Amino acid sequence: MSTAKSKIELQMESKARKISEHFVENIHILSSEPSMALYRLQEHTRRSLNSAIEGKLSMENSGEQLRGSVYDCDNDLDALESLKSSAQTFSSIKERLDSIIKLRQKLLMREIRKDSSMEF
């Protein structure tokens, strides 16, 4: 009986091996077939397209914000340059204001002297 079992087991093992080899071969053929490759590419594209579009939109939005920031910085630099070049104008205005203040003080002093001399 043991030889009968071992003979049956050997036959079953041989059949199982052949079936698994055929299965592996078919899987290999299917995976190497061009239409399957195209199908897999299509599936990959379908799955990853949404995230790629979102990334592109995000990059475009970031680019717009960056261009706006660069524009603002350029305007700020222009304003600073114009302030540097206007330093002479500001110093001239300061000198004139100082002289006006001194003249006003002199006028006030004259009025005070005039009023004090009229009292006597």
Describe this structure in words.
With 120 residues, the chain is mostly helical. It is built from 3 helices and no strands. The longest helix has 52 residues. The model has no long low-confidence stretch (mean pLDDT 86).
Please tell me how large the radius of gyration is. Answer: 47 Å
Average pLDDT works out at: 86
Low-confidence stretches are none
Q: Tell me what portion of residues adopts beta-strand conformation.
A: under 5%
Structural class: mainly alpha
Number of helices: 3
Order of SSEs? HHH
Relevant terms:
120 residues; mainly alpha; rod-shaped
Topology diagram in text:
Layout: H1 2-32, H2 34-85, H3 87-119
Brief overview:
The protein has 120 residues and is mostly helical. It has three helices and no strands.
